[in-house]
Structure formats: structure tokens, C-alpha cells
Amino acid sequence: MLEPIWEADFHPCNYGFRPGRRAHDAVAEVRYFTSKSYEWIVEGDITACFDEISHPALMARVRLRIADRRVLALVKAFLKAGMTG
């Protein structure tokens, strides 16, 4: 429900938590760039950072693009429940 709103903002070489993108796609892109003589490849794992994100600050950003109170309540409930899996 929220993905179409933000997907266009994401950088094309970002593969984490995105529909239609797999780890194999990221590896293929790394191989492509290394074949073009790039000297640096940066990899980051931000999984643990989600525990540190301010929920009020995040909700303020979400409210800039979402007006529907029901959707906002759902996002807030997801944040309160935390990430599982």
C-alpha cells in the first residue's frame, strides 16, 4: 500500500526490502561495476538501525505524503508491533 508512494524516490542500486529485487540482482550489479574498473563498492546492512528510528519523526514524514487517518493508524500499529521474521 505504501510502496508505490515511495518507490520512485529510492536509488536504483538499492536492493534491500524492495519488490522484484533479490540478492542475486545486487551481486550481478557488483560484478558489472567491477568489470568497469570501479575501485569501490559499498555494502551496508541497516537491519539493526530500525530499532533506533524515532517513531514520531518517522510518522511526521509519513504524514507529509499520507492524509488518510486509517492508513496512518495502520503504519503506527506496524511500528509499535516491531519487525519480526
TrEMBL record:
Please name the CDD domains in this protein's record.
RT_G2_intron
Is-annotated flag, keyword Transmembrane?
Answer: no
| Molecular functions per Gene Ontology | RNA-directed DNA polymerase activity
Which keywords belong to this entry?
A: Nucleotidyltransferase, RNA-directed DNA polymerase, Transferase
Q: Record's superkingdom? A: Bacteria
**The name this protein goes by in its record:** RNA-directed DNA polymerase
Q: Which organism is it from?
A: Micromonospora olivasterospora
